[in-house]
Design brief:
Layout: E1 11-15, H1 21-29, E2 34-38, H2 42-49, H3 60-70, E3 73-76, E4 84-87, H4 102-111, E5 120-123, H5 131-142, E6 157-160, H6 170-176, E7 179-183, H7 188-196, E8 204-208, H8 209-240, H9 244-251, H10 274-281, H11 287-297, H12 299-312, E9 318-322, H13 337-348, E10 353-357, H14 366-369, E11 374-376, H15 379-385, E12 388-391, H16 396-399, E13 410-413
Helix pairs in contact: 1-3, 4-5, 8-9, 8-10, 8-11, 10-11, 12-13
The structure holds ligand SAJ.
Ligand SAJ is lined by residues 126, 163-167, 219-220, 223, 227, 260-261, 263, 266-268, 270-271, 326-327.
């Protein structure tokens, strides 16, 4: 009996080289696929083709440099033909928190003219229920000669395989997390699993596309609701003169209680956005999920309401605002509540000297940089000079701060790290 061993590397085109697309492209290329990454950002494309990376993610740069130099990953602005497409484009929301699927639509229109039949198209972007179907319909509208009906030479296969990796641990979690795979037609799910098995050691959980879409949203809404519970407790505790972190620590000793941590709000693109996709899909049935979003979105305003009256009583007040990132020990400022709070402080207190401390960046974001009353300052210098110290992010540099520097200061610790 003879057996054939195929050594051919599968071809994959990854559309969107952002926080998910680029690490996925790199890890696929390092695990046996020939990958082309497509992005509209020419600067990012050029950087990647030089083996460099346009944003910081631990361990990503060495993988990218390796696969680019071996020729297994290249980036381009032009979509080529591939046997497998992975769509990892943004899914923001529009006015009224309605999902904006225009990037998915554009990706579908980009891919459609290249299709020959039998390709697999995987939607990775976090999406409202029905988005994989929407992508398939977009492609089919452009190409009426193709079909979703399995088994013919003209069939194109669609699956949803949502990313679930944590920023800061993406290169590890891509390999180790379990993967939900949702089939839209035929054996699309099995084909997606075979492709992801090149790098993913986690369990593959097979379902339909709509359930897979909802599962991803459910995970982030679960976390959002739990953070909202902690944030609501923090506001209640303030009124009762109770330390909320001690309260939560005590309650969490119960074997079936596990409350998350309050803070100045919820940042970044995932947890602060995804629950709205559920609300938009089922507005009448999602009052808890909507309220959780509102509670977390109101937290930056609550922090400001506590701080501003004190700040206004001090002439030419000096405020050390510690942290701009959306969570500890990363440089990602997207949708960060800390950044929002510092911006509003600058608006409300034109005479103040606001010393923003963010050890993970070397330049303030433009909307803060152009303000006369905000400067990027080193932590010890800022705390030393400040009347008010406002802790917004629990970066290691701040949790380790010499507490004696805080005596004589008005301290607002939104993360509960200084007791
Ligand atoms: N936060 C709190 N209190 C907590 C935990 C978090 O205030 O107890 C805040 C953080 O400071 C941050 C925000 O919530 O501002 C979100 O941070 P996170 O670490 O909870 O999550 P993300 O947004 O970095 O990543 C999430 C993850 N989802 C879940 O844990 C269910 C990740 O696995 C997803 O892949 C990612 O969203 C995504 O891309 O959807």
């Amino acid at each position: 009996m003879t057996s054939t061993v195929t050594t051919q590397r599968p071809s994959v085109a990854v559309i969107g080289l952002g926080y998910i697309g680029l690490p996925t492209a790199a890890v696929l290329a390092s695990s046996g696929a020939n990958v082309v990454g497509i992005d509209i950002n020419q600067k990012a494309v050029d950087l990647i083709n030089q083996g460099e990376v346009p944003f910081v993610e631990p361990d990503m740069s060495t993988t990218v440099a390796g696969v680019v130099s071996q020729g297994y990953l290249r980036a381009t602005t032009e979509t080529p033909h591939a046997d497998n497409y992975i769509v990892a484009v943004p899914t923001p929301f529009k006015d009224g928190h309605q999902p904006d699927l225009s990037f998915i639509e554009t990706a579908g229109k980009q891919i459609a003219p290249l299709l020959e039949g039998n390709e697999l198209i995987i939607l990775e972007s976090t999406s409202p229920p029905g988005a994989t179907e929407f992508l398939a319909e977009t492609v089919m509208r452009e190409r009426p000669d193709l079909t979703l009906k399995p088994g013919s030479a003209q069939t194109v296969y669609f699956a949803h395989c949502p990313e679930r990796v944590l920023p800061g641990r993406i290169m590890i979690e891509l390999r180790t997390n379990d993967r939900i795979v949702g089939t839209l037609n035929g054996n699309a799910g099995e084909r997606a699993r075979d492709l992801y098995e090149l790098f993913c050691e986690g369990e593959f959980l097979m379902t339909d596309a709509r359930t897979a879409e909802m599962a991803k949203l459910t995970e982030n809404a679960y976390r959002d609701v739990n953070i909202a519970f902690a944030n609501e407790l923090s506001v209640i505790s303030d009124g009762l003169d109770i330390n909320v972190w001690e309260l939560i620590r005590l309650a969490n000793h119960h074997p079936r209680v596990n409350i998350l941590q309050p803070g100045p709000g919820v940042g970044e693109h995932c947890i602060a956005v995804d629950p709205w996709f559920i609300v938009a899909t089922a507005p009448q049935q999602s009052s808890l999920i909507r309220t959780a979003r509102e509670v977390n979105d109101s937290k930056p305003g609550y922090v400001l309401d506590k701080l501003l009256p004190q700040a206004r009583r001090i002439q030419d007040v000096r405020i050390a605002a510690l942290g701009l990132a959306f969570k500890p020990n990363i440089d990602d400022l997207r949708e960060s509540p800390a950044r929002q709070i510092v911006g509003q402080l600058a608006d409300e207190l034109p005479q103040a000297n606001i010393m923003a401390v963010e050890p993970n960046i070397d330049r303030l974001p433009s909307e803060l940089e152009e303000r006369d009353n905000v400067t990027l300052t080193e932590v010890n210098e800022a705390v030393h000079a400040a009347d008010i110290v406002l802790l917004l992010v629990d970066h290691t540099e701040f949790t380790r701060l010499d507490r004696t520097l805080l005596t004589q200061k008005i301290v607002h610790d939104t993360r509960g790290v200084w007791g």
